[in-house]
Write a structure and sequence with these properties.
It is found in: Endomembrane system. Pfam families: NMT1_2 (PF13379). InterPro entries: NrtA/CpmA_ABC-bd_dom. This is ABC transporter substrate-binding protein. The protein has about 425 residues and is α/β, with parallel strands linked by helices. It has 2 domains: about 230 residues, D-Maltodextrin-Binding Protein, domain 2 (3-Layer(aba) Sandwich), CATH 3.40.190; about 150 residues, Periplasmic binding protein-like II (D-Maltodextrin-Binding Protein, domain 2), CATH 3.40.190.10. It is about 40% helix and about 15% strand. A 5-stranded mixed sheet has the order 2-1-3-11-4, sandwiched between helices. β12 and β13 form a beta hairpin. The two termini are about 30 Å apart.
């Protein structure tokens, strides 16, 4: 279905980026291979979809059989039960799996990141109006000001005896959960005491907000802008506001499958690398948006997808706009490299919010989830220096955390202790593991 021969010639002509890349140093033997890959309908599945639709996988002797799914728990389970060979996954999912967390943990690794960016936080228009009134908030105010205005609304509601706000994230072990918590805590809001976090699958977030089932959500594109253009939501923060380099989606696979299929893994990574280069090129956005808009993929309006890819936002029903540079980065700046320090930052957030205890065994398990060795085997000449594997995060201009903290992967306890809002040894509010 996804072979190059099954798509029109205009798409085939787009097969340009990555053709100069050398073939990986792999031993022949596995031959042509069909790889079954699960994905969730989000823009950050673009690299996987482009690899199938624009011939990059076929060029490497791989047929990508893409399967659209509805929830991250489904993707996790279908990978564990061998219904998928690989999967579009949240960056914390392999870490959680190697730590034995969740309802069905199964060993999972990632040798490839699908890029950076794409998330945002959207609140209901009713709630945002309260924030404007209570916090004297201007439409141009930044993410931190928005968080502090929300804190003022929550304090007033607590005095009045109102029930806590209900906020949606996509999965307990997700970038969305940790970024929403980071934003809330930076504004002085305790995400385990002051609000209630619930799981909502990404395609359902806009409908849930419209129905009043939730008061806000953190999710990947395009569902934030879908909510704002429907007139039900206001985008108050993006991933770039919280931490531009925050790890996002990855390709997950079972370690036993990777060990049994080394040539296929290397060929797949070469194909994904070429597709990521192509997705990063501005001149390809229109073609990419048209494919993503199809019902079998993201199933959102192509016009919204084109604007999201360019970082051009309609942030509220009044039509206020914002341009976020590099809202999506699919390849540049080694965006596809599986950095062990990202796994450690994810682990630090799990510890910060009481999902797991800090331990030497936990540190080792977390790092084992990210496999730069497999990336280097396939793309050695394109790989960055190993010095970035355990580097500081948030320490350079243009890539800082919103609250000014710097993550040192070798000083995780001190990093967590420096936050005024954290679990502090008390039970956290469990999210339903859907």
């Amino acid at each position: 279905m996804n072979a190059l021969t099954d798509i029109d010639e205009s798409k085939a002509r787009k097969l340009s980026a990555g053709e100069a890349l050398p073939a990986p140093a792999i031993v022949a033997g596995e031959g042509s291979r069909t790889v079954r890959a699960g994905f969730i309908p989000l823009v950050d599945a673009a690299v996987l979809i482009a690899a199938a639709e624009f011939g990059f996988a076929q060029k490497e002797g791989i047929t990508l059989d893409l399967v659209k799914d509805t929830s991250w728990a489904n993707v996790r389970d279908r990978l564990a039960f061998r219904q998928f060979d690989v999967a579009h996954m949240l960056s914390p999912m392999p870490v959680a799996a190697m730590l034995g967390l969740g309802s069905n943990p199964s060993p999972t690794i990632t040798p490839f990141s699908l890029g950076r960016g794409g998330n945002a936080i959207t609140l209901s228009t009713r709630l945002y109006a309260e924030m404007q009134e209570e916090g004297d908030l201007a439409a141009s105010d930044n993410a931190l000001a928005n968080a502090k205005a929300l804190a003022a609304v929550i304090r007033r509601a607590r005095v009045a005896g109102s029930p806590p706000l209900k906020l949606g994230v996509t999965y307990p072990f997700s970038s969305h959960n940790y970024e929403f918590r980071y934003w809330l805590a930076a504004g002085g809001i305790d995400p385990d005491r002051d609000v209630r976090l619930v799981v909502v699958p990404p395609p359902m977030t806009s409908d849930a907000l419209a129905a009043g089932a939730i008061d806000g959500f953190c999710v990947g594109a395009p569902w934030n802008m879908v909510a704002s253009e429907r007139g039900v939501g206001r985008i108050v923060a993006t991933k770039q506001d919280i931490w531009p380099s925050a790890p996002e989606k990855v390709i997950g696979m079972r370690p036993d499958w990777a060990d049994a299929n080394p040539e296929t893994v290397s060929r797949l990574l070469v194909a994904l690398d070429a597709a990521a280069r192509w997705c990063d090129a501005a001149e390809n956005r229109s073609a990419l948006a048209e494919v993503l808009a199809e019902q079998r993929y993201v199933a959102a309006p192509a016009d919204i997808l084109r604007r999201v890819l360019a970082g051009e936002f309609t942030i509220d029903p009044e039509g206020n706009r914002r341009i976020v540079d590099d809202y999506f980065v699919f390849h540049a700046g080694f965006a596809n490299y599986p950095r062990p320090n990202h796994a450690l930052w994810i682990y630090s957030q799990m510890v910060r919010w009481g999902q797991v205890a800090l331990s030497a065994k936990g540190l080792e398990a977390s790092v084992s989830a990210y496999r730069p060795d497999l990336y280097r085997r396939a793309l050695g000449r394109s790989a960055p220096s190993a010095e970035i594997d355990i580097a500081l995060e948030g320490a350079v201009p243009g890539d800082r955390f919103m609250d000014g903290h710097v993550f040192h992967p070798e000083r995780i306890r001190e990093y967590i202790d420096a936050f005024p809002v954290k679990a502090t040894g008390r039970p956290h509010t469990s999210l339903d593991d859907m």
